[in-house]
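Quick one - first record:
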Amino acid sequence: MWPRRSACGVFLPAGRFSEEGWPSEALLGNNFLANNVQSFLPILIYFVAVLGFAGFSLIAPHLVAPRKSTLVKDMPYESGMDPVGTARKPLAIKFYLLAIVFLLFDVELLFIYPWAVALNAEGGLSQEARLPILVVMMTLLATLAIAYFYAWRKGVFQWRHR
């Protein structure tokens, strides 16, 4: 028999695939579905156990906890201190700027660490790819250094202004 094309245009070996392109019973055997379900049974058991634990952890406190409500228990809690004033006080922008600088350098490590590992790994980067990738990484580091010095000059790292 000659190979034929499936509905999606792929050539199929004769007698091994159906008209839709699915493997035939002769290729898979009669226990294909049973074998695949059986191989995923430990994952299914683990998934059910995780969902059961999460559900139990969410429901059990509501069933076991005491329900005595007092004025002190119903008060807002702010780090062990009584709340004074409004929660709508303006917050200094320096906290946001420092958080953005932290994220900048945190994401930088996500790029640098795999590069450094692949650079020294046996069979990691080929000799042809090392120089262009080194140039890209040095460009990234130079850009980050410029951003760091710019933030430093703008006073992002100073907590108290004189």
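second record:
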Amino acid sequence: MEIITCTFDKKEYQKIDLEFMLAETCVEIFENYRKYDYREKLVLKALSLAKDLGITSGFRHDEKQVKWPVIVIQLPFGEVSFHMPPVELPYDESNEEDQKLRADKYKEQILKNKEELKTYELTRKKNKSSHSGINWDE
């Protein structure tokens, strides 16, 4: 019984369960094929699951549609592949260090926002409970 840690949710799964999650996700992609935003998220989830399972998968270029990268997953019965939308952002010439700093700043900002929200909610709850015994949550 092989145990694999899923990168997507950081939980441990038996290999067969992770394979089933990938199979379900692939089926769901095709069930939602024209719901592009949702489909793209499912494709990225499937790619992550395939990578965790050691299944050959990744990106390739379509010679006929060079602007649209393709995600490919090699399933036992053949590949499934999905064009992904291009992002129309110019390359800012940042390097790995620049991008790491950006990611760190983003995380710091989110943590700060979470702390501010928590403080606000505690203050709000305290203020509600101090008003003449009225339960404002009902």
